[in-house]
Design goal:
11 strands; about 120 residues; mainly beta; elongated; four-stranded antiparallel β-sheet; seven-stranded mixed β-sheet
């Protein structure tokens, strides 16, 4: 199994920056893609950014040009650099990881979530 723990959230003014980190432990060799999701009050949990095992990235349109996702496989970490933050970025952010099916079947792992609040 895999444990994911997020850190780096908090309160920031509009236009500021935050860097989220997600540390993975456990069966980390079986982790494939990793993602960041976010969920605002009353809204669905949506993917924000994703990164493949080899560094290919995806961003939802609303964060393109502002957020950067990266990973360090040796350290079993993934990061989300968030720049030029806007109030609409306020949400609980979740780290997510896919398990490689070759390791025993598909499993979806989640962190506990971390609050990001952007003030006007």
């Amino acid at each position: 199994q895999v444990r994911l723990v997020e850190s780096g959230g908090g309160l920031v003014q509009a236009g500021g920056s935050l860097r989220l980190s997600c540390a993975a432990s456990g069966d980390t060799k079986c982790i494939s893609a990793m993602r960041w999701y976010r969920q605002a009050p009353g809204k669905e949990r949506d993917v924000v950014a994703a990164i493949s095992l080899h560094g290919l990235t995806y961003y939802t349109d609303s964060v393109k040009g502002r957020f950067i996702v990266s990973r360090d496989n040796a350290k079993n970490t993934v990061h989300l650099q968030m720049n030029n933050l806007k109030p609409e970025d306020t949400a609980v952010y979740y780290c997510n990881a896919d398990r490689d099916p070759l390791c025993g079947g598909p499993v979806d792992y989640w962190g506990q979530g971390i609050q990001v609040t952007v003030s006007s």
